[in-house]
Design brief:
Layout (H helix, E strand, L loop, with lengths): L5 H10 L6 E15 L2 E17 L12 E20 L2 E11 L10
Antiparallel strand pairs: 1-2, 2-3, 3-4
Amino acid sequence: MHVVGRDNIRAMIETGSLPPGRGMHYLTTDHIVKVSGDEASMNAQFVAVESNADLRSESRWSAAAGIVQGTLALTMIGRYDSRLRRIDGRWVFTTHRVKHSLPIALPSKK
């Protein structure tokens, strides 16, 4: 997938929502940032986990506590390779590549 520009990225996020009880959780780690003047590079590893759950109705905890029962599935592992530029005092991404270490694996449909 090749998405360019703030408006296109926002549209992708807004229209890519998952049904209730499902969500994607991303963990990034091992960030390496190199800055040279107004240019920078950032590399990091990531793991993505999909949750497929329902709020626990028999729990004595409030539904707002977010207690769930269901499954978690590791769906992606990889790394980010990004380039940034400081423009008017703010850092913006000029390139953000996602490199998968494993094929994308989606949980099976029930």
